Amino acid sequence: MTPKNDTQPRDRVLTGDTPTGRLHLGHYVGSVENRLRLQDEYECYFLLANMHAFTTRADKSEEIRRDTIEIVKDWLACGIDPQRSTIVLQTEVPAIAELSWFFAMLIPFNRVMRNPTLKTEIESKNLGDTYPFGFPMYAVGQCADILVFRPKYVPVGEDQAPHIEMCREVARRFDQLFCHVDPHVDDADYPKTGGVFPIPEALIGRVGRLVGADGKNKMSKSLNNAIYLSDTPKQVKKKIGAMYPGQSRNPDEPGDPDINPVFEYADIFIKDQAAVAELKDRYRKGDNIGDGHIKLAVIDAVNELLDPIRTRRAQYAGAAGDDLVLDIIRQGTRRANVVAEETLAMAKEAMNLNFWRRRLSDDD
Ligand code: ATP
Ligand code: MG
Q1: For a pocket test of ligand 1, which of 31, 56, 222, 269 has the largest count of ligand atoms closer than 8 A to its C-beta?
Q2: What does the alpha-carbon distance between residue 312 and residue 316 come to, in Å, rounded to a whole number?
Q3: pLDDT for the residue 361
Q4: Is the model's pTM score more than 0.90?
């Protein structure tokens, strides 16, 4: 990564979250940490993918609206700064919906359905075979979410890698088909040789896949296994306290830390890694160390991470906080629409759809 200096336009970063619930520890280590690191050096766009929340929760529009606001509160509490980064509401960026249609023409249907992340979601969220057409369509829509900002990097968790790969394929296909980019050029040279879209790169976080408190699945808002950034110390204690340590043993029996998800959390959240190594050593030997002891150390570490986040979050509590958040979303989305409309116009020109130039008006 080579950030540009102040005199040049900064490269862009895009990522986002679906408002299917509040943010959890998986978001923090999988993507938010990277966002915080990037927001000074890059032009960052953080998208609230509220349209995509309807793919699994069309009957819960009120909750989606609530979660949209709560996620922004989580972002602000983590340190996302709306002065430096642009917060964007997907449903008020019409260019995203339009590009989604164009991109849907460029991806074979079977290619979408083979996407392993979609398959896993269908299984883990018990969607059976009655999910709406819009569910697989979200994978196409996500290509538009990303490419509408023509970003260089997309900070995401591991589960998103297949989506980003599909997005890269779509960008190449578009540029080759409509902008006559030579298919043999390097990915990095697409815009230089006339392409509208860069080929963006995924930036996987420090922890690509944080396991949930169930010790099995990816920590996920929809799977009831999440430790939320807004959980109270008591809730954190209860959730970690109830984790199954992967084996049943007494404090003086040898155990295997590698199959114990609590140790996975210890590796990730306890800063003093020498202390973790010692705990593991004692655990392996059965040196009078119960699972409760390890859990307590992890609970303390998680609460230490969450304490300042809780404090900042409290500043946005209640209806006054909601109003502040709505204002931030509205201002960010207005800025985002300038870039999005520019991209859409470029894409339409390449597709010979430049009949006339439209202007969006944002009356508020
Ligand atoms: P849902 O259950 O509704 O899919 P989610 O918990 O998977 O919700 P998303 O909004 O889909 O959350 O994901 C937002 C971002 O956080 C993505 O970049 C995703 O890869 C990342 N992410 C989500 N869960 C984890 C996790 N457990 N570990 C690491 N990264 C994660
Ligand atoms: Mg997800």
Answers
A1: 31
A2: 8
A3: 79
A4: yes
